Amino acid sequence: RPELPPRPTRARQQDGIRNIVLSDPKKRNALSLAMLKSLQSDLLHEAESKDLRVIIISAEGPVFSSGHDLKELTDERSPEYHAEVFQTCSEVMLLIQKLPVPVIAMVNGLATAAGCQLVASCDIAVASDKSSFATPGVNIGLFCSTPGVALGRAVPRKVALEMLFTGDPISAQEALLHGLLSKVVPEEQLEEETMRIAKKIASLSRPVVSLGKATFYKQLPQDLRTAYHLTSQTMVDNVALKDGQEGIKAFIQKRKPIWLQ
Fold first, then answer.
1. What residues pair up with 13 in beta bridges, in sequence order?
2. Which structural domains are found in the chain, ordered by start?
3. In what order do the strands lie in the sheet with 132-134?
């Protein structure tokens, strides 16, 4: 029997924190169909388990991800195959926001095209100061339309359009300024800072964080009145949670809460 090719991602979980690593540095961690399906599988694996509290996505090598594997997008492949690539990519990006736990991108290096889209799709993004971000598809005749969905929701429209129209990269500091990143740190502090955030989230009530994440994304596209109506009901639901009551009572009693879940 022929040997199966190695999985392009690897995952490990400890103390509620799942680390997913894009591990195909020779191909600049391109989001091939195999890479996307592997990432999707790692994200979905026991996603509803109470033992999972937060996910970190990082990468091997100097490139976080170069985006789609262009060898899969030539006319040697059928339009149906191309459609599967883009559909799977969209499913992965949507999945990140639908997961019941926060997803953190830990970026050290270049993130371009769909790789930039992946960073923009995560709930939190921490990057080293050597990182940079671009949507350069226009330079090779393939406008970054799908990356533009996540990018245009993470940064101001004029910043997104300059990136999309020129393909020019922006630095980590510019990405932070425009809202693509949560935090920029020196390379040697990247893992420590990302783990600090992840451990804080992992120490909190999973049902409370899960409810909060779902509601945040649900209210974003709504008008102000609808958003307040929706979130007011969520607050009522949150107060009714066992961990909601435990947290309130612990605060009143001046003690640390003991989360039940």
1. 18
2. 9-203 (3.90.226.10), 206-253 (1.10.12)
3. 63-65, 110-112, 132-134, 170-171
Give the number of C-alpha atoms closer than 13 A to the C-alpha of residue 120, restricted to the C-beta side: 29
CB neighbour list of residue 122: distance below 8 Å, 6 or more residues apart = 57, 96, 103, 104, 105
Contact 88, 69 (CB under 8 A): no
Query: pTM score, two decimals?
Result: 0.96
Give the 3-state secondary structure of residue 184.
strand
Q: How many angstroms separate the CA atoms of 57 and 71, rounded?
A: 24
Pairwise CA distance, residues 130 & 242, whole Å? 44
Strands annotated E in 176-223 = 183-185
pLDDT digits (tens, 9 = 90+) for 19-57: 999 999 999 999 999 999 999 999 999 999 999 999 999
